């Protein structure tokens, strides 16, 4: 994955636990990189090892680290560096979710070697939809849960996310039921 992802993990850890914790996490992961370059590709294994080491160092389940990372990704990484892209993608949470299937094709203009996730929306009602998530990468469903919660916060829209089919339990792909209530600011 692009270095932007590892940099964001670093930023999240440093923000909440300090730089010394981040140095210990890198050492535990056996990653000898001083500075991650945002637009350079790194093996996926680097990211998985960092998340695994963060989980051990912070005594948190890996799923909890991934979920926190999803929210951090939306509320800090994406919002601070790519706010324009996010804003152009929707004025409300449901609008944003409905265009999610096309979102990474715009990201791909900035990161040409991106191997993006694929999303699909079905069962759309005025307060819910079913989000289908396809990827070749294992174990990232909790990251998607965190992304949804981060988007809910960004749009001041209370949101609930339920995993209704899981690839690690034999389903073809992960599916989430996303339910929202009217935006507090609406
Ligand atoms: C402007 C904002 C965003 C940018 C710049 C961005 C960029 C990226 C990048 C660089 C990766 C790593 C993949 C690679 O390097 O091959 C990635 C992965 C991913 N992104 Fe985004 N992204 C953004 C917003 C979002 C949002 C809003 C969602 C969902 C709500 C999302 C869902 C994901 C997921 C699930 C992955 C994991 C990769 C996988 O499933 O295989 N991203 N994105």
Radius of gyration: 16 Å
Roughly what is the average pLDDT, rounded to an integer?
Answer: 96
Helix content: 40-55%
Note poorly predicted spans.
Answer: none
Q: Tell me the distance between the termini.
A: 37 Å
Strand content: 5-15%
For the largest beta sheet, what order do the strands appear in spatially?
Answer: 1-2-4-3
Biggest sheet details:
4 strands, antiparallel
Helix/sheet category? alpha+beta
Bound molecules: protoporphyrin IX containing FE
H/E element string? HHHHHHEEHEE
Global geometry: globular
The count of DSSP E runs of length 2 or more, i.e. the number of strands, is 4
The tally of helices reads 7
Structure, described:
With 186 residues, the chain is of the alpha+beta class. The protein contains seven helices and four strands, in the order ααααααββαββ. Strands 1-2-4-3 form a four-stranded antiparallel β-sheet, covered by helices on one side. The longest helix has 20 residues. The chain is globular. The model has no long low-confidence stretch (mean pLDDT 96). Protoporphyrin IX containing FE binds next to helix 1, helix 4, helix 5, helix 6 and helix 7.
